[in-house]
Each structure stands twice: as structure tokens, then as C-alpha cells.
Amino acid sequence: MAGSRGAGRTAAPRVRQEKRRSEPEMEPEPEPEPPLLCTSPLSHSTGSDSGVSDSEESVFSGLEDSGSDSSEDDDEGDEEGKDGALDDEGQSGMEKTTEEQVQAGTPCPRTEMASAWIGDEYAEDSSDEEDIRNTVGNVPLEWYDDFPHVGYDLDGRRIYKPLRTRDELDQFLDKMDDPDYWRTVQDPMTGRDLRLTDEQVALVLRLQSGQFGDVGFNPYEPAVDFFSGDVMIHPVTSRPADKRSFIPSLVEKEKVSRMVHAIKMGWIQPRRPRDPTPSFYDLWAQEDPNAVLGRHKMHVPAPKLALPGHAESYNPPPEYLLSEEERLAWEQQEPGERKLSFLPRKFPSLRAVPAYGRFIQERFERCLDLYLCPRQRKMRVNVDPEDLIPKLPRPRDLQPFPTCQALVYRGHSNLVRCLSVSPGGQWLVSGSDDGSLRLWEVATARCVRTVSVGGVVKSVAWNPSPAVCLVAAAVEDSVLLLNPALGDRLVAGSTDQLLSAFVPPEEPPLQPARWLEASKEERQVGLRLRICHGKPVTQVTWHGRGDYLAVVLATQGHTQVLIHQLSRRRSQSPFRRSHGQVQRVAFHPARPFLLVASQRSVRLYHLLRQELTKKLMPNCKWVSSLAVHPAGDNVICGSYDSKLVWFDLDLSTKPYRMLRHHKKALRAVAFHPRYPLFASGSDDGSVIVCHGMVYNDLLQNPLLVPVKVLKGHALTRDLGVLDVIFHPTQPWVFSSGADGTIRLFT
User: Fold this and answer.
1) pLDDT tens, 161-219?
2) What ranges does the record give for the region Disordered, renumbered to this chain (predicted)?
């Protein structure tokens, strides 16, 4: 046995030196894993036997991971030499037979068993196929991330990573074309794609569903009762009893002596019985300094409840009983505003008094007050109340602004909804519910012309361009464009020429509105064009240059706002979807912006980029009106809940200032084109004029000072002022009301 081992040791280094000469790039490999079927001497001799064929080597490698280093083999050979004397004869005989069989070229019986065991694998694969089994051993594959190979095969050659140049498109095509794509996985040891067999797929599905891997395993087999419940004559085991079963334990004796010593020294204290009485105490009692609450420096005792008075009596004096009017007024008040939280009642006797309905609620509220109400002693600061009021300039220093009523324009028989002034300030146009448009001379309050339009006029707007004499009026579902022919005749004639110079295209484009020419009878009245929409029009407003006008329709969806171009007679809907019911629109005076006011917000759109720039949140229930400062950096909104909101676009999307000067709903707001003034008209019949100075210095906030309250309109059907507008050059303001009059304040 010793001789055979010595021969194995002397032959091994020579073969390894030849291998090193033939393959200089081979790297050292880790220790082999323990063999599965073949014996350990066979695994040591595989590295030194040159007579073993490739197929036999692959058989051995399929059962065990071979490929140990020469130094490790030498060490193992030394260890075997040391342990050789301890081996029995049978084992040495088997080693001799094994070595002789390997040198003679015949496999050992165990090898024959292994080859017979994996014969099915070789029935499928041809022996000429290259065996790319990775023999890298127990090494992390992250070590090969920066190298082109992923390990070594049985001959020590590198196993190169497959070239993966496929992108996601190739993977998608493989997924569509290859029916076995779902069962293909990548081998992390070689990087190749492997197709799972039906048995492997079934095994994975079983494991995923929480079942056992073996199909034949039944986890619910009936339990076998190995021990019966009957008392038997003979014991299960006749082993004699241990000595420790009848002799006291010395270890336990030592533990007990240690515990006794600790109790004597006082290190272990006996458990004291807990006091069963609950530890309640009066939270609001008068505490002494040694009590728990006395240590709080800023503790304030809870206020006592007010003692009941005569009103709480079951038989109160008659002056405490409420009359019918007082009871109705008490019921209409808010619960927080009532002086008494109950109605005093009189009963003939104490037996007739029913149970108090709010008893539990009042006790609960009192407990909440005691428990949750924070009490803290605050140091009072002596501040003069006059110092807290902001220092505003005197109104007489902010002149000029309108102070008194100068003229009343009478002639409409119903409420006057809208106003507009010509760019020169000489003429005024008004629209009413009596179905007429009236043109007035501003200086004399004389009605120059009356145009009957046959419907309620919701909105009028004079073209702001001084070179065009046009008035747009919103009547039912149409926008009427009229040439009033007032003022300069050359301007009126050039306006007609401009409208008649339009040549319609051969193929009319598809538009959301229809442009109709006026008939001869309508042209004599002054009507030039009619734009029909199919839905009621609520507002019309011009762009500053006078070629575009925006229209608001009373409909749902994205076609609530339309923009018309006068020169090309084109209409377009600028929005693809709706953000609520649109109330008002306005063009920015200097930049390509469109402001759209819905019920709860004001959106600022960039018309060239076609995107939303800002969204202003007025914190109002219902926005009613909108106006833009002539400089374009500030916006005011009026609302039906009697608020006027000022926005600074450079500052924030939230209100800079909220004014609550009116008592009823605001119907209209307006800026003066030249003076730092803005006005608001309300259903309380008043027009409030405010001074609103916007500074060029961006660090200085706007100065807002209310300067005058103008009254004159009579309330009709709970409606007051319906529209306000400033004169373009003078510090005058026009207002139209539900009483059918127009008033000029100067």
C-alpha cells in the first residue's frame, strides 16, 4: 500500500509539470468539493494518470468537481502517508485494485455504476460535444465581472462569456417567435441559455404554489402509533437507572447556595405586593407647593363654571321669558353668537320639569375644556392700539379721484347690464334687458342713437383701436359687430372698407362659429357682421390691438372660450379640455397672455407657447368679475361672496390683499387706464373707488387705499350696480344699475 502511494506521488509532479509547460496561462483553482460516488484515492489519482480518456474524465467530473492544485495534492498525499498506517487492509486492497484498474485503462466498479446511472444523459448528447461544465468551484462570480471569461472547464481552458449584443427589440422578437421563451433561463456559471424540461417546470410550479418538491410525497399520511396505550409486561428498555436519578445534584446545590448568599447580602429583594388602590387625585384642587401640580411654574387653575342664574330656573320671572319675535331671532342666530344656549321655559312645579336634553353634551364639552384647553400665563405687553393701525395717506393727498355724481343717463326701460366707452372718451355705449343698444354723448348725457337688437344684451365692448370704429355686442347666441358712425367720418368709412375688403376662401374651413354678412336693412341700422355660435354668449372682450376678440359661451366642455380674428374672419377654440365653468376672460395688455377666470381659480395661459403659465387661487366661493392692471403685473377679481382680491403676479399665486368693503355680491371691477385707481360695483348699490399705486421698484409692495364710496343707484329686485368702467383719459367712473340708469361720477 505504501509502495503504491509512493508511486502515485512520484508520478503526479511529472505529469503536472508537463501540463504547466503546455498551458502556461492556467490559474490556480480552489479546493475540490467532496466526491459524490467515487472514492477519494481515485480523485487524487486523476490528476496524475495520463492514461484516462476524456470520456472517463468527464464521468468522474460529473460525479465530483476535480481540478486541485499540485501543492494541495502534495499536501494531501503527505497527509495520506501519515494516515496510511491507520487504514485497514481491506481499504488498501481496494486502493491497489483501483490504481491498477486505472493504469490498465479499465474503470472501477463504482465508475461503471456511475456511467450506468447517467447513461440517459449520454444517450441524448453526443460524445463529440464539448463539455463546458464550469469547474470554478465555490468562488463568487462577481470576481469575473471585469474579465471576458466566466470560469474554466475540465481541461483548465477558459470559458468565455457569450457575446450578448441583443437589445430589447431582439429580446421582444425572441419572446414573440420562440414558443419556449418562457421556460428559458440563463446559467450564471456559464452565461448560456438553458431550456427547462417539463419536469423542472412542474417542480418550479409546485414550489411556487407552496407544495412539496417530490410528487409522491403525501404530507397527510396517517400517523403510525409506535407506542400503544396498553401497559406491557416487559419494559421498552432494560437499561439500568442512572446514578443521578437517586443522588442529589451538586450543581443545583451550588446554585441554591449562591442564591441564599445573595438574599443574605441583600442583593435579591423579595417582591413587594402592589397596592390595589388606584392612584387618583383631584386635578384642579388647590395644590400645596409640595404637590405634583405645584411644581409647574406657569400653572393656571381651571376656570370655574358660571353659577346658574334666574334664566335657568324652572319658574323664571316673566322678564326672562322670550317673546315670539325674540325666540325666532334666537333660532336664526348661529350657536356661537347666542347669549343663552337654551330657551328659558316656565313650569308649574318641579315635578313637571323634563330631563335636560343637552346634559350629556354639556358635561362632555366641559370635560374637553378641562382636558384639552391650554392655559398659560402670558406677560401682557402695553401697546398703544393706534400704533397697530397702518399709517395710510390721507385721501385728500391722493386726488384726483371721482367724488360726486355729475350726470344721469336715462332712457333704458329695464336694467342696464353693460357699458363701454370709445377710445377717445367722447361716446358711451350701453346694453340693456329691454333689447336695445344706446349710444350716448358723454359730456351732455344725450342719447345719440338707439339700435334695437331684439334680445337681452349681455355684454358690449368698443374696439380699443382708434383707427377702427366698431362695437361688439353679445346678444343671445350671436356677437353683433356694429359701426356706430360717430365721430370722425374718415374712421367710420375706413372701417367699412376694411370689412368689405375681405375675400372668402374657395373652401371655407371648419370653424366653431359662423360669420354672416348683414342684410341691407341691418346695414342701415349700423350692423355689419353677425357671428353665430349656437350657444348663449355671456361676455365679449377685445384684444388691445383691435383685431382679435374673445367670447365666453354659457356651455359645458372645452368650447366655452372662443377667439375670433376680425381681419381673416376666423374662429378657433384655444383649449382642449375644460377646467370648470368659465366666468370671465381678459387679454393681457402687453404680453401674449389670456386670463381665464373660472368659479374657484384664475388661469394664465401663454398663447404662443400654448401652455399654462400660472394658476391664481382667489380663495373665493364664486368669481364674478376680472380686471387686469394696465401695466399687466397685477390682477383684481370680484366675487359673489362680497370679496375683492388683489393679485401681484410677480409675488405669488395667492392673494396679496383681500378687501371686504362691500356688504353684498360684487358684480364688476375695473382699472383706470392712466390713473392709479380701481373701482368695484356691488349689489348694495354702491361703487367704491380705491387708490392702487403700483411702484416700479419691485421691492415695494402696491399701496391700496379706499378713498370714496359713491352711492346713487336704487336697489331693484335685490340688484344694485351691474357694471362699472372708467373714462379713458379723465378720473371719471361710469356705473350702470338695475334701476335702468347710467351715472357718471366725477
Assistant:
1) 877 777 889 889 988 999 999 999 988 777 788 899 999 999 999 999 999 988 888 88
2) 1-110
**707 within domain boundaries:** yes
Beta strands in 518-606 (DSSP E): 527-532, 537-542, 548-553, 561-565, 570-572, 582-587, 593-598, 602-606
- The parent domain of residue 724 ranges over 395-502+510-745
Distance CA 520, CA 518 (A): 7
Residue 329 domain-assigned (yes or no): no
CA separation for the pair 724, 710 (Å, rounded): 12
List the beta bridge partners of residue 548.
565
Residue 287 lies in a domain: no
Q: CA 71, CA 20: separation in Å to the nearest integer?
A: 13
Cα–Cα distances (Å) from 92 to 83, 112, 262, 352, 733, in that order, read: 12, 21, 64, 117, 124
CB 404 within 8 Å of CB 461: no
Distance from C-alpha of 661 to C-alpha of 665, rounded to nearest angstrom = 11
Domain at 478, CATH number: 2.130.10.10
Cis ω for the linkage preceding 248 (within 30 of 0):
no
pTM here is: 0.51
Is residue 611 within 8 Å of residue 605, measured between CB atoms?
Answer: yes
Q: Quick one: which of 499, 425, 491, 430 has its CA closest to 459?
A: 430
pLDDT of residue 25: 43
Q: Please tell me the predicted confidence (pLDDT) of residue 187.
A: 83
Flag whether 589 is in a domain.
yes
* Residues ≥6 apart with Cβ < 8 Å to 690: 659, 677, 678, 679, 680, 704, 705, 706, 707
**Count of domains for the chain:** 1
